[in-house]
TrEMBL record:
One of the GO BP terms on file: proteolysis
Domain named Peptidase S9 prolyl oligopeptidase catalytic: residues: 453-656
GO molecular function: aminopeptidase activity; serine-type endopeptidase activity
Keyword terms: Aminopeptidase, Hydrolase, Protease, Serine protease
Protein name: Dipeptidyl aminopeptidase/acylaminoacyl peptidase
Domain of life: Bacteria
Hydrolase in keyword set: yes
The UniProt record lists the keyword Kinase: no
Length: 658
């Protein structure tokens, strides 16, 4: 790939399936490089495409359904007559804040349901009531006079914020204490739809779901007394008008995505243990739980194995079928889809293999899922009666360039005998190729079977890319993820060195004398660490990194619990900080950061930059305005291109390709 090939990426989201199982609708997002914005359209896809002479390729019958600026989050009504979705009318200002629309499936124009006057910060994904008469959703409610609710009050003229909680801001959102998310219900067919605010108070709410009888709502919230200093949350139920709110879980878990069972008597949800302190989050697997819908702070039952099954799909809601609950879980770089029986028995595999199932829906015996592979950003597949069929070809334009390289699997062992798993993306030609060790963030995350634009662009420029899932990563069990706690740098480094050594030993076309290291977030932490504790790399790129755990503790939106959870007490944080070894860094270092990064604030980059500059180390700081922690994945298209250009220029200067 070339950086400009980002404009060819077509990324499908989570599909919705019509009640009869015959049609799927999915939002497909692309980068509009000319407009410097993201665009989204809804596509309609028959699940059993047929032509005059029999079955045809699904790609021939998939077609655009909407043509808005950015349409997302489609949802079929249970009666099949309507499609609800979110539409952002433009790329900036109030027009970029999505509102609810409904589209008649029998033909006709989309009708706007909510407005910017009702929701100045936009509405959330729509959820139909089972009787197809109402929509529930979540939307942030700004305090009066803030966030443009008064045209005569500019942001710099707003009154000061009185902050009393540790959880007052969030990367990618900003301050949250004065724009809490609440649950709303609306009749989309009313002549003048007026949304009813169901929840209230100084609480966050998320993940609304309907009961089968349309008489109850479930949602998640943290309303307990210690919510400002722990990670616990609960599932609540109430009537659609907000009356009789009732907590059904026991404030022992961090919870999300509730869904009622078919009979309405059980609520299924995602949860993870956080220990007696409410802060023991490191490498805790998110699993599937169940609790009676009529419970009063009941004890949830875990239905998936705590040690081995970690939730990994991005569906955004729990999908309940007549036979069980669908659950996507991480597995050695894959995301397998399984059907978990209602009683928590052995999960039945549905979609497995060298791929990731990232979104799915099911109806009338048909499952439709968005699936990625090492050389695909995602296609829709349908499963009916155990038979799988590919429905789309959204990646065809990129594939036709011939510039996408399939990753090769690597398996080796660390010096202590521990298994290490990863991948190699090789460039064209016989070599010798310079090598980049690419390190993922998290650290409880995984590289795997999905198209990673980073690796593809670097391989396209002539670099062999080694990437893997060392200890600390997810997808290999809780013990694997927790192995680096309080010793992050050295334990991860052993696995990363082993993976790089293995790639060099088994692929003679790789040049061991021209190796660089790079990564973002935790990958940036490890890049700075390796630069100060190893002499095998010619140059490094540390991006949006944690470099100093002491200041990260107070400056990051999550630092108040994350730093101690991973790095330990103050003394260990000081020892473990990559900045502590900055005096030993002698290789050229490019530091990339975003001005509005609240996850790893910009001071983390500035402290490293100054420390290296004062010692005369060749160092550059590339600073992006207006961007947060997710620049490389969802930043402005022009910034993503500029970032790639700067990275390729840096490597060309220090690891010149042939």
């Amino acid at each position: 790939m070339k950086p400009a090939d980002l404009g060819l990426l077509r990324t499908p989201g989570t599909p919705t399936v019509s009640p009869d199982g015959r049609t799927a609708v999915v939002a497909v997002t692309r980068l509009d490089l000319e407009a410097d914005a993201y665009r989204g359209q809804l596509w309609t896809v028959p699940t059993e495409p047929t032509g005059p002479t029999g079955p045809t390729d699904g790609a021939e019958t998939a077609r655009p359904l909407t043509h808005g600026w950015n349409d997302q989050a489609p949802a079929f009504s249970p009666d099949g007559r309507w499609l609800a979705f979110l539409r952002a009318a433009g790329k900036s200002g109030k027009e970029a804040r999505p509102q609810l629309y409904v589209l008649p499936t029998g033909g006709g124009d989309a009708r706007q349901v909510t407005t910017v006057d009702q929701h100045p910060l936009g509405a959330g994904a729509p959820v139909w009531s089972p009787d197809s008469t109402r929509l529930a959703y979540v939307a942030r409610v700004p305090d009066e006079g803030r966030y443009g609710t008064r045209e005569d009050v500019a942001p710099e003229q707003e009154p000061p914020r009185r902050i009393t909680s540790l959880r007052y801001r969030l990367d990618g959102v900003g301050f949250v204490l004065d724009r809490r998310p609440h649950v709303f219900v609306v009749d989309p067919f009313h002549a003048e739809p007026a949304s009813l605010q169901v929840t209230s108070g100084d609480f966050d709410h998320a993940d609304v779901a309907w009961s089968p009888g349309s008489d109850l709502l479930a949602f998640t919230s943290a309303r307990h007394a210690g919510r400002d200093r722990d990670l616990r949350s609960d599932v609540f139920v109430c009537t659609p008008d907000g009356k009789d709110p009732r907590q059904v879980t026991d404030t022992t878990l961090s919870v999300g995505q509730p869904a009622f069972g078919p009979d309405g008597r059980t609520v299924y949800f995602l949860g993870s243990e956080v220990g007696p302190s409410g802060l023991d989050f490191v490498a805790r697997h998110t699993g599937l739980y169940a609790v009676p819908a009529d419970a009063a702070e009941g004890t949830p039952s875990r239905l998936t194995a705590a040690e081995t099954l970690q939730h990994g799909d991005s569906t955004g809601r729990t999908v309940v079928t007549a036979d069980g609950v669908l659950f996507g879980h991480e597995n050695r770089g894959a995301v397998d889809l399984a059907l978990v029986p209602f009683d928590g028995g052995e999960p039945r595999p549905v979609l497995t293999g060298q791929r990731q199932t990232v979104g799915f829906d099911a109806a009338a015996g048909v499952l439709v899922a968005t699936v990625t592979t090492g050389d695909s950003a995602g296609e829709l597949v349908a499963v009916r009666d155990g038979t799988e069929r590919v429905l789309t070809a959204f990646g065809a334009d990129l594939a036709r360039t011939g510039r996408v390289r399939a990753p090769e699997e690597l398996d080796t062992t660390a010096p202590d005998g521990y298994p290490v798993h990863g991948w190699l993306v090789r460039p064209e030609g016989p070599g010798p190729h310079p090598v980049l060790l690419l390190i993922h963030g998290g650290p409880f995350a995984q590289y795997g079977w999905t198209l990673l634009d980073e690796a593809q662009v670097y391989a396209g420029a002539g670099y062999a890319v080694v990437m893997g899932n060392p200890r600390g990563s997810s997808g290999y069990g809780q013990a694997h993820g927790a192995a680096i706690r309080y010793d992050v740098g050295e334990r991860s480094a052993a696995d990363l060195h082993a993976l790089l050594d293995h790639a060099l030993a088994t692929h003679p076309e790789l040049d061991a004398d021209r190796t660089g290291v790079m990564g973002g977030s935790h990958g940036g932490f490890m890049t700075t660490w390796l630069a100060g504790h190893s002499d095998r790399f010619r140059a490094a790129i540390s991006e949006r990194a944690v470099n100093a755990a002491d200041s990260f503790t107070g400056s990051s939106d999550i630092g108040w619990y994350f730093a101690e959870g991973y790095y330990g007490d103050a003394d260990r944080r000081a020892w473990m900080s990559p900045l502590a070894a900055a005096g030993d860094i002698a290789i050229p270092m490019l530091i990339i950061h975003s001005e509005h990064d609240w996850r790893c604030p910009v001071e983390q980059a500035q402290r490293l930059f100054v420390a290296l500059k004062l010692r005369g180390v060749e160092t550059e700081l590339l600073l992006f305005p207006g961007e947060g922690h997710e620049l490389s994945r969802s930043g402005l298209p022009s910034h993503r291109i500029a970032r790639f250009d700067a990275i390729l220029d840096w490597w060309e200067r220090h690891l010149r390709t042939s």
